[in-house]
Amino acid sequence: MQLETLNDLFVQEIKDLYSAETQLLKALPKMVEAASAPELKEAFEDHLAETEIHVARLEKICETLNISPKGKKCAAMEGLITEGSEIIAIKGKSPVKDAALIAAAQRVEHYEMAGYGCVRTFANTLGFTEEAEILQETLDEEGNADKRLTELAESIINVDAEAVEES
Fold first, then answer.
1. Is residue 16 part of a domain?
2. What is the domain extent for residue 93?
3. pLDDT per position in the chain (167 positions), as tens?
4. Which of 44, 46, 108, 126 is deepest in the core (most CB within 10 A)?
5. The domain that contains 97 carries what CATH number?
6. Global pTM?
7. Using CA atoms, how far apart are residues 143 and 12, in angstroms rounded to an integer?
8. Total domain count for the chain?
């Protein structure tokens, strides 16, 4: 694909997000299984359900604009998931691994927020008002997931991980 217009870039970035989200659908169950804190398991399970909705939204946008969501592999998400898999495979104390899982998950959230922010802005510029609103909704949910992970880290997970060091 060539990038000759903003629309070309918009389509490419939508495909990238679709690839990222579908890769995440496969990775999140592993994160759920690897988490030891019930609150973290729940946060990952909730985000898995949201991710299914994000994929459906991207498919709806593609259908409306008559484009295929497929055809691009998101190498960045692939790398982030590989890093998360490495954390899952590492031996260690549960609270410390949970803190590492949160760090990996927040890298994913920040990547997604950047992507959704860009495509939302492209959609607005291109006059795709309804699509921009849908993308903003997803962007808001990604931000809320990131905030929830921060709150868990600060109130429970990191505190428990530090207690492991002191014992």
1. yes
2. 6-160
3. 689 999 999 999 999 999 999 999 999 999 999 999 999 999 999 999 999 999 999 999 999 999 999 989 999 999 999 999 999 999 888 999 999 999 999 999 999 999 999 999 999 999 999 999 999 999 999 999 999 999 999 999 999 998 876 55
4. 108
5. 1.20.1260.10
6. 0.94
7. 23
8. 1
